[in-house]
Amino acid sequence: MKLFFISIIFSLLSLQANFNYSQPKSLKSDEERTNQNHLIDGVEFRDSSELITTNFQNQETIVEKEGSNYNIVSKNLNTGVLNFIDFDETSYYYRQYAFDTAETKSNLRKSEKTNNVQESNIQIISNNKGESFLYTEGYTPNYESSNYAVKSGARIIGDEDRKHVTDTTEWPYRATGYILTRYDVLNNETGKIDSRYYTGTAFLEGPDLIVTAGHCAYGDVTTSYKDANDVIHTEYEDHLNNPRFPDQIIFYPAQNGASFRPYGGIKVERVYLEKNYYTDTLKDWACCKLESPIGNEIGWYGKVANFYQKDYPFYSFGYPGSKDGKMYTADAKFTDFENDNGWYYRTNLDSEGGQSGSPYRVNINGGEFMCGIHTYNVGNSYSGGTRIDEFMFAFLNSFVANHNVIYEVASIKPSDYGFADAYPTDDSTKDNFKTHTLSTGFTFRTRRYRTGYIQSEYIVMSCIKTNITEAFIEYEFDVPVYRIDVDLAHWREYSHEWLDKDKGIAELQVWHERSWWNPLVSSRWVQKFDLLSDETALPRDRTQPTTYSIEFDSPVTGFRFYSKINNPDISDSNRGRICIGNMNIYTKAD
């Protein structure tokens, strides 16, 4: 029996989607400006560092009204939905807050790549002073290793020390990329919506997860600005300090000028900010979920938490604004750590606008790890970035590895239900739960309609028969369920079953309670997994079922399989049959 994990992998971005956009052309030297302003078909694009906000006297986006019990804010750039997340760094599970199934269904744990794509759990590394740090190793396809030697003693501040990366497809450079961010902003003078563009750097920390500076993904764009001739423009000024999420972000891994984008552009689906940055623009970092898992192809970096040692060497690479979108690398040292807030390194890295979001990479005992994110510079005095702390480490790790969660697995076979070989339609089975207890002591409950244990083979739903249009089986548990692995198939080919996506639905559904802040949305069953989609490819031969692994965005205590025919075909035979076979239920051990 083959093992198939849910996966809808979007193709790389078509840059004609949603808005009129053409790729930036190579910039001539006379177009370079000290404030890094350039044009995309007549529209200026600027360095994201201009979006850093420090004055919150007129801040209107404080969100305490949503409740203070959250530490991560996430926005879906496709739907505009904002989520407030209370992330527990001490106990989390794989892709807990990726919201995959609601949008792209890009579950990335493919069976053939489980050992390669999923990182190992957290490990501990020590430096030459005996200090210990948490780390994960990341993922490099084909087990390539970097030949880059970290140099010490390089002079950065004062002397130009950056070097052009000639082959950005080499490891580790290819896992870093150029980001182009678009904000759609009201022009007060014309009354029209203009697109404003900003640039920065980001790098991969998971199959579809990039990390960047917070100000590259959230900032106040309704401000005045100077053009290339130092003329002040106020057409976007609203006299409010109101940072916002962008309308679109595109990530170009390994870009080396606008004419060299070896992996194309991938749209960002969702942005995550820590509460400190969302409410006060403090602790400058962000991460973004991409619409496709380019990291499976090109790799992502290992990371280390809470690392600092004065004068320790590191290197960084990104996209200086004056370098025409080409990647540059430089060596540096950590010169200080700002212990008053515990967030920021000081360094002597030579940097400028556009490099925000670049990774800080250190070599510890022969292994290379990302330890920080470049975010700022103070004139020619020093530059710096956000250090990866334990909270950031845990949140990033939740996208690629399990940590501190031990699962208990209950295996349910079709014979465990005790159902008759029939399709009941009575109110007793439809409205009342029946309790089932496995030999292991695990207990679950079901209620059902037009669902039975057929021919001693499978639990089968049949939504088509004379005067019948739907079928379901609902499950209820005493403990939270994180994931299920379940064998599924149609009973026979379409010519016998008459059920496909054009004529009806068949879904795994979860119960969605009405939100107190949105009383217009009622409690209801919502789709978790579409059994009839082309991507699911549900087998048409019950003797060859497929095992699907379905992870819940948040733990559930119940779910149901449901099928319905839209325009019923009158039939004296049972049709529209879907088979439910062996099922593993993953619960969290105490």
Short description:
With 590 residues, the chain is mainly β. The chain has helices spanning 100-103, 114-117, 275-280, 295-298, 390-397, 427-431, 494-497; strands at residues 3-5, 38-40, 43-47, 72-76, 82-85, 123-126, 132-139, 163-164, 176-186, 193-206, 209-212, 225-226, 232-233, 248-253, 266-274, 286-290, 300-304, 313-318, 328-337, 344-347, 359-364, 367-378, 382-387, 407-412, 434-437, 443-449, 451-454, 458-464, 470-490, 504-512, 524-530, 546-565, 575-588.
Strand share of the residues? 35-45%
Whole-number total of structural domains = 2
The whole-number mean of residue pLDDT values reads: 81
Percent helix, as a range, is: under 10%
The shape is: elongated
Give the name of the CATH architecture of the largest domain.
Beta Barrel
SS elements, strand count: 33
Instruction: Compute the separation of the termini in Å.
Output: 32 Å
The total count of helices amounts to 7
CATH topology of the largest domain: Thrombin, subunit H
What structural class do the secondary elements suggest?
Answer: mainly beta
Largest sheet: 11 strands, mixed
Return the CATH class of the largest domain: Mainly Beta
Task: Explain how this protein is built.
The chain is mainly β and 590 residues long. It has helices at 100-103, 114-117, 275-280, 295-298, 390-397, 427-431, 494-497, and strands spanning 3-5, 38-40, 43-47, 72-76, 82-85, 123-126, 132-139, 163-164, 176-186, 193-206, 209-212, 225-226, 232-233, 248-253, 266-274, 286-290, 300-304, 313-318, 328-337, 344-347, 359-364, 367-378, 382-387, 407-412, 434-437, 443-449, 451-454, 458-464, 470-490, 504-512, 524-530, 546-565, 575-588. It is elongated and about 80 Å long. Mean pLDDT is 81; it is low at 1-37, 55-66, 101-119 and 143-158.
